[in-house]
Design a protein that fits this description.
Helix content: 25-40%
Bound molecules: L-homoserine
Distance between the termini: 10 Å
Radius of gyration: 19 Å
Structural class: alpha+beta
Shape: globular
Length: about 325
């Protein structure tokens, strides 16, 4: 018997990882978003948000979680309807893949109620539509790792082809979220349409180095490859104190440091939990010192599970 009610969780993500604009992303343990979905007698979707202090759209038309759920219900036309509650825990405009986590939790929750649930990889095409809704671009480098877990490589967008990269999960990821907002749509609009071949060569060398480094758990190779000569120099201007903060992270022992997604969060890589805590503190202190900005720090290895059902109720 299929469950009548489920609660799903989907984790935050670090996308781009420095050089891999729109093609690399990985999941971390927290923060994340929750979605509770219940079957109803009436067909169609009813939707509400529990958001605390986070401001998100609450209508079915505008909210990404409701949007992706509607797409699934329109396509599969189950004999029942769905009542969905989004427990929005993630800050928006943070660079932590907030909209992606809402979409990933929503597709996993609705899927669990369907008579014939799809595989997670088959849910990706719905979840990506949440990103199109949120920022006007269906980039998958947050939503794929939030849904599937681990490190994802978006090998192609046309057609969408996501490769789950097998990694040695030895490194520790530090993410610091300064309390300022950067809208992904704005941060994308400022990027150049064309890049010099010389920059492209450097960038794809780094993307490949980073991928191999993560597969081998080679901290030095990972650190050297977290170099973004195309996007970071442009977006750094959106993050007050970015260069000082990056310097502080590297001085505190980080192997590499760059912008998480479209920012303003910053990520850094460490070889141990202890080192990660030291780096996290150094970044937070530097944000406060240079700009008076307070921040939150999250420390985690790569989350290999991705979005999943926490609770099922059968009747
Ligand atoms: N790859 C996307 C970007 C991620 O950098 O715009 C958005 O979080």
């Amino acid at each position: 018997m299929r469950p009548k009610r489920v609660k799903a969780f989907a984790p935050a993500t670090i996308s781009n990882l420095g050089p891999g604009f729109d093609v690399l992303g990985l999941a971390i343990d927290r923060p994340g978003d929750f979605v509770i979905a219940s079957r109803t007698r009436e067909t169609g979707l009813t939707f509400s948000v529990r958001a605390g202090s986070v401001e998100v759209p609450t209508s079915v038309e505008e909210n990404v979680a409701a949007h992706v759920a509607s797409l699934m219900l329109d396509e599969f036309k189950p004999s029942f309807g769905v009542n969905m509650v989004l427990e929005k825990r993630m800050p928006v405009g943070s660079g932590l893949g907030s909209s992606a986590a809402s979409s990933a939790a929503a597709v996993v929750a609705v899927n669990a109620l369907l008579p014939r649930p799809l595989k997670k990889t088959e849910l990706l095409r719905f979840a990506v539509e949440g990103e199109r809704k949120a920022s006007g671009s269906p980039h998958a480098d947050n939503v794929a790792p939030s849904l599937l877990g681990g490190l994802c490589l978006i090998r192609s967008y046309d057609p969408l082809d996501v490769v789950s990269v097998p990694i040695r999960n030895t490194l520790v990821w530090v993410v610091v979220h300064p309390h300022i907002v950067v809208r992904t749509e704005d941060a994308r609009r400022m990027l150049p349409d064309q890049v010099p071949l010389r920059s492209a060569v450097r960038q794809w060398g780094n993307v490949s180095g980073l991928t191999v480094g993560l597969m081998k758990g080679n901290a030095r190779l990972v650190g050297m490859s977290i170099e973004d000569v195309i996007v970071e120099p442009v977006r750094a201007t959106l993050i007050s104190g970015f260069h000082e903060v990056k310097r502080a992270a590297l001085d505190a022992g980080a192997y590499g440091c760059s912008i998480s997604g479209s920012g303003p969060s910053i990520f850094a890589v460490a070889h141990s939990m202890r080192s990660a805590k030291k780096i996290g503190t150094a970044i937070m202190e530097e944000f406060t010192r240079t700009s008076g900005i307070t921040s939150d720090v999250y420390i985690s290895r790569v989350n290999l599970e991705g979005a999943h059902i926490l609770k099922k109720i059968r009747r």
